[in-house]
Amino acid sequence: MSTTVEHDAPPELKRVIGPKLLLLFIVGDILGTGVYALTGQVAGEVGGAAWLPFLVAFAVATVTAFSYLELVTKYPQAAGAALYVHKAFGLHFLTFLVCFVVMCSGITSASAAARAFAANLVEGFGLEFGDGGILLVALAFMLLIAAVNLRGVSESVKLNVVLTLVELSGLLIVIGLGFYAVAGGNADFSRVVLFETPEDKNLLLAVSTATSLAFFAMVGFEDSVNMAEETKDPSRVFPRTLLTGLSTTAVIYVLVSICAVAVVPVGVLRESETPLAEVATTAAPGFPVAQALPFISMFAVANSALINMLMASRLIYGMGRQGVLPPALSAVHRSRRTPWAAIALTTAIALALITYVSLDPGSPVVAVLGGTTSLLLLTVFCVVNVTVLVLRRDRVAHEHFSAGRVLPVVGAAACAYLVLPWTSGRAVEQYGIAGVLVGVGVLLGALTHLWRRSASRAAR
């Protein structure tokens, strides 16, 4: 008499994301904290031509996206870049480092967004909270994100739809008010083609520096490939959806940056903590909808936090399932079918990071957080462009997208150019913070190796 053990089989992630939800996921992620927070800083590097670094960043991202599309349609599983590196080189330590770097980029971005959410909430409602109060709001917000994430990817993605529509409406308001000001003669459109670079940088280095910073927004498609295991028919859906998302957000970024520098002088834009709200109030003083920009910004950064935490937890889940991390981290909730162990770990790291950052809001860590995230992502993108060429020898049974042979090489070279200190123009602090994060990754990688060896001995 046979018995069944089907109930003991580990549950798999639920495929609930179709083309429309995936498009909104990508658009919402790329249009998050980047455009709402970095427009002024990018303008500070190149002057009125702030649109150029965003355009260059999107061009480099699009070239790299072709490599991602070949890999995600070839291996439609969670874990993204770390999975591809593992398949290409089979080195657990290298795979772990890539996994850790990508996870850090998502969690640091989400943590910064949580802090920004709290600050916008306090400012928007005129609350008299000190740093301690803002910290508590940020921590509570991150716990709320964890609860939504744990409830289910369907609920998370549906909330993403709402937040994406809100943040998109804010950007359309900025664009509309900007063109209104230009038409009314209340803007200086000539500033749009005016380059103003810092005294210590030539034009090429200034554009490289600004592009390196603008790349902070490009975490979007790395996040999206980590959702492959929850996407319906990913080999067919991903190529068109990802390229459509990149094209759409590129147009919006360029239009927003053009309107911003045309309406507000670059010096004022650079110093403002809420650059788009500055644009709205300058373009249409007293216009009621302009007063809503701080709240819309709050929803935008909330969307970034939600998506980045979704990505980080799925990455940890995927690596646990592949055996690069302890298998316990691949545990899936039986009723909700969400990776609860990975969610718990990534949330704990985010809470610790938010607390650390909030201890000294004026520290260099906060000032260069976006650039550090960009540095980590560009390093991973460079590796992915190389990986796609290595994996050409690996054949799969189903049809998949092909990036060709030239684009991955161009992508790897462009990403390396924006990573190296003598070509990217990055601040030294970014490399220091990235070095500390990688050092932590090396330590955790060594501990994981010891765990695997111990488990192997116990199994004998």
TrEMBL record:
The keyword rRNA-binding does not apply. InterPro entries: AA/rel_permease1, APC_superfamily. The keyword Cytoplasm does not apply. Pfam families: AA_permease_2 (PF13520). Gene3D superfamilies: Amino acid/polyamine transporter I (1.20.1740.10). The chain crosses the membrane at residues 21-38, 50-69, 89-112, 132-150, 162-183, 203-221, 242-268, 295-317, 338-359, 365-391, 403-420, 432-451. It is a multi-pass membrane protein. It is found in: Cell membrane. Keywords: Cell membrane, Membrane, Transmembrane, Transmembrane helix. PANTHER family: AMINO ACID TRANSPORTER-RELATED, INNER MEMBRANE TRANSPORT PROTEIN YBAT. This is APC family permease. The lineage of its organism: Bacteria, Bacillati, Actinomycetota, Actinomycetes, Kineosporiales.
